[in-house]
TrEMBL record:
Residues 27-80 form the HTH cro/C1-type domain. This is Scr1 family TA system antitoxin-like transcriptional regulator. CDD domains: HTH_XRE. InterPro entries: Cro/C1-type_HTH, DUF5753, Lambda_DNA-bd_dom_sf. SMART domains: HTH_XRE.
Length: 280
């Protein structure tokens, strides 16, 4: 962490499960009992000492090859193989996103600006599946089902927390792309119009005619906790950045406030969505 900014990539997990930490502690105990350093053990299992450390600290789900080779190093007792079968991670959510998803459950305010795709909280099943179908590396059917189930569960927040204020600013071009085809986009617009009728949800469109605006640096999410502390989360191609530094939060707050004034009003946003739907 540097100045309250935590960056995590594909190998990092801000919060691991109890089973991952327990498995890691067992690996560490067996390694130390064998008198091996992390580097020495890593050479034997053909993984880097950094990977060994991530597994031992419960930050990484061990690969099948890691478990098999560790078994050979520790005498093929079968203990690690059986323990690996009990490992749990929250399914359907990217490792770097789990900490933020947990905070969402209790948030009293949630602001989201998105310029890449419709945010997960607002996606229809057809839109989400179109995203999953185009993901690289490709997902198998089981992974797609798992991810949609996790996304659908998250979406219950919108109606399940009527005292939480949700604000979304979405770029107009997200709809013009017509991901999944015209039918998927029409259904998406209808869904958004329905969600926008909730008293605790505000949906604004940033029109392409606006040109430059305060959010050109990329997507962002801001969240207020029950004790009135603000946190932020920015996501990139292969990882996310969790931000708690008040100075950084202040910058993002000012940008989001400016964007709300630059985006269309709630009424004009609804009208634009209806016009785009009619053109599909």
């Amino acid at each position: 962490m540097v100045d309250g900014v935590v960056g995590t990539g594909t190998g990092g997990e801000p919060e691991s499960s109890d089973s991952l930490r327990t498995f890691g502690a067992v690996v560490q105990g067996l390694r130390e009992h064998a008198g091996l350093s992390r580097e020495e053990f890593g050479e034997l299992v053909r993984f880097s000492k950094h990977t060994v450390a991530s597994v031992e600290l419960g930050r990484r789900m061990p690969d099948a090859e890691f478990v098999q080779r560790a078994e050979e190093v520790f005498g093929r007792t079968g203990a690690l193989r059986r323990a690996a079968g009990c490992l749990e991670r929250q399914p359907g959510l990217a490792a770097w996103f789990r900490r933020w998803a947990a905070l969402e459950q209790a948030a009293i305010t949630l602001y989201t600006y998105e310029c890449r795709m419709i945010p997960g909280l607002l996606q229809t099943e057809a839109y989400a599946r179109a995203l999953f179908a185009n993901q690289l590396p490709p997902l198998d059917d089981g992974q797609i089902e798992e991810r949609w189930a996790a996304r659908a569960e998250r979406q219950k927040l919108l109606k399940g927390r009527p005292n939480t204020a949700f604000s979304f600013i979405l770029e107009e071009h997200l709809f013009l792309r017509c991901l999944g085809g015209g039918g998927v986009t029409r259904e998406l617009v209808d869904h958004l119009q329905e969600i926008a009728e909730l008293r605790n949800v505000a949906v604004q469109i940033m029109p392409v005619a606006q040109g430059a605006h305060a959010g050109l640096a990329g997507p962002m999410q801001l969240l207020e906790t029950p004790d009135n502390r603000w946190l932020a989360y920015n996501e990139g191609q292969r990882g996310g950045q969790f931000i708690s530094d008040p100075k950084e939060i202040s910058v993002l707050h000012r940008r989001y406030a400016r964007m709300r004034s630059q985006a269309l009003s709630l009424e004009d946003s609804s009208s634009l969505l209806q016009r785009m739907r009619g053109n599909l």
